[in-house]
Amino acid sequence: MSTDAASAPPGSTRDRVAVATVKELTRRRKLRVEVDGVGIALFHANDRVYAFADLCIHQDRSLAKGTLLHGRVICPGHQWRFNLETGYEEDQDLCQPTYPVTVEGDTVYLDPAPRRVLPGSQEESSS
Predict the structure, then answer these.
(1) What's the DSSP call for residue 126?
(2) Which residue, of 2, 18, 40, 72, has the fewest CB within 10 Å?
(3) 29 φ/ψ angles, rounded to the nearest 5 degrees
């Protein structure tokens, strides 16, 4: 599914974009979408939806083609394991960009601005 932030549902702001349905994501557990020309990998695990920048920060491989295992997304390139909650790779000091996601009814909405994580920490910044 490809969408523009400007096509947000009536009554919503540009900060939320409808990108998929829960039904299509649950069936496949992972899905690649585009928002404003940026590839986003969606994952369904533990009854939650997570969103990552699709291209791995290490080798530019598509994380949507990776594996979900034990709360991690495993990159198909060099098997880096990114935590679904934080985007951090367990053995590196690097963070895969993540995106805020909300689910309303059967629709998955994404905020197209990546979460900001403070360098060297696994905490989101408050600004």
Answers:
(1) -
(2) 2
(3) 70, -20
Rounded alpha-carbon distances, angstroms, from residue 77 to 14, 21, 35, 81, 115: 34, 28, 24, 11, 24
N- to C-terminal Cα separation, the chain: 30
Residue type, 96: Q
Per-residue pLDDT reduced to its tens digit, 49-101 = 999 999 999 889 999 999 999 999 999 998 999 999 999 998 888 889 999 99
- Residue 80 is given by DSSP the state -
Cβ(22)–Cβ(103) below 8 Å: yes
pTM of model > 0.70: yes
